[in-house]
Amino acid sequence: MRATIEDIVRKAVQAAVDNGELALSSVPEATELAAAVERPRDPGHGDWATTIALRLASELKRPPREIAQVIAARIEQSDLVATVEIAGPGFINLRLSNAALQQVIRDARTLGPDFARVDVGQGRTLNIEFISANPTGPLHVGHGRWAALGNALCNLCAFAGWRVTREFYINDAGHQMEVFGQSLVLRYLELLGIPLVMPEEFYGGSYVIDLAQQILDEEGEAWLTANEQQRSAHFLERGYQLMLAHMQQLCARIGVPFDVWFSERTLYKPLLQNGQNSVEALLGLLWRKRFLYEKDGATWFASTTFTDDKDRVLVKSDGTYTYFAPDIAYHLSKFQRGSEYLINIWGADHHGYIPRMQSACEALGYGGKLDVVLGQLVNLYRNGEAVRMSKRTGEMITFEELVDEVGADATKYLMLARSTDQPIDFDIELAKKQDNSNPVYYVQYAHARICSLFKKAEETLGPALGVVPDALMGELDGADLGLLVDPSELELARVFSQLAEVIEGAVRDLAPVRLTRYAEELATALHSFYTRCQVVGEDVELSKARLYLSDATRKVLVLVLGLLGVSAPERM
């Protein structure tokens, strides 16, 4: 619809120029016209507004309101625009006709899963990396926020024309993995009666005891007297595989799939071509580009050449790598695997890491190709009281425990219901409520209400039309949508017409929260329509038209909830 309005405005300006009413050397470019078309903040002012008269005032050296009068007079009367009004200093407000809104309803039902599809990505490749937790412990509720956010962003970007790769970076190398393995060994020995002396830096969570017990149950006491080095290596690997499998199962359970589970370890494996590993190859590349230098026995990356506030060490004086070196190699691998653009979802504590990684990408020839979304903290509450500990373990509540209690749908939706730059106060009891105070219930109930409505229609309207229940949907194809003139019916159509813009804005600004707001607005419009209008009544033709509108609403709800990664239940 936006493109149609832009075209109407362009033709009006062109007509005024051709008629000598506007002394322009050329009609404004499409980008300028697009920027000049917007939704009025006050719906009472119309469906669309254009500021083109204000933008042309300096060039034409005429009052913008005068220019607006010229353009408004040239907007052709059509089936799309019902009224054209001039407001304020030179705004031109347009109100859509009933016929235009009724066509939106038809498009929504006919196109179904392709309704409101936009082509922002134009087939370009995009890698979205999210969660990326260390496999040394269970996912926490912050990871849950990143899971919901990453999943929704992937869905939105794919819907908007990007070819998306979903990636989980497994931090499975380094000192913390060794500490995790040793923690398992000590818990295993403790289970066999060996007194426990747990160093402070070791992992002391109850899940470590559970993993050690599982290994004992499956492998017995053989490791009690085994070679210490072999035992440590085995427990590290066994614990790693168990934790990784658990993460993968949880992600699958909540409907957050991944295309790639990338192991950090692979960055240190020799490449077939020359025997170097990925980190060594990266350092060689940066040396050739002259972005590295030696100082105090260490190797430094000249990141201040770009946007970073200071240069960064990649290889310490003892020859070991900093975290930054393999991270750069990992990002290079994503580009080398075919991704043109990257989006990372990191925790809020990584804020200072963004400019150095963007500097590294620029040094590698991929400037402007990396965006980072920071997920702020999640604070858990129960009936307004802060909750920090699990009743079962006496430790921090895990993401899995939260899902177990409130369900995957409510968890994901509420994790998306606030802007990423804001912390979330997640009230567990609110998430479980089956009433309109719970936003996910409110939206899902709108879908269930329509499904219930159709069951009723099959029983009452079906016999009146002489069709069996399963054929009712097909009977609606010929409904007379011209009968849909009630304000609540037209309001639903107006909400439909906004979806493409909402999706485009959510993708552009990496903000799925806009889709949750839209979902709630759509549910409100549906509930208002249901209250005002008797959908199935004595007037068969009107009933068919209203059922058509209801089914269109159902399809839009399914689309929106699907993009958010939330189900659309048929009954609540």
What value does the average pLDDT take? 93
Beta strand count: 15
Helix proportion: 40-55%
The number of helices is 21
How would you characterize the largest beta sheet? 5 strands, parallel
Structural class, from helix and strand content? Answer: alpha/beta
Percent of sequence in beta strands: 5-15%
Spatial strand sequence of the major β-sheet: 7-6-5-11-12
Radius of gyration: 29 Å
Shape: globular
Distance between the termini: 34 Å
Stretches where pLDDT falls below 50 for ≥5 residues?
Answer: none
Topology:
Blueprint: H1 2-18, H2 30-35, E1 37-38, E2 48-50, H3 52-60, H4 64-74, E3 81-87, E4 91-96, H5 98-111, E5 125-129, H6 141-159, E6 163-170, H7 175-191, H8 206-219, H9 228-253, E7 260-263, H10 278-288, E8 292-295, E9 298-301, E10 312-315, H11 324-336, E11 341-347, H12 353-363, E12 370-375, E13 378-382, E14 385-386, H13 399-406, H14 408-416, E15 424-427, H15 428-432, H16 439-465, H17 472-475, H18 487-497, H19 499-508, H20 513-532, H21 540-564
Parallel strand pairs: 5-6, 5-11, 6-7, 11-12, 13-15
Antiparallel strand pairs: 1-2, 2-4, 3-4, 8-9, 9-10, 13-14
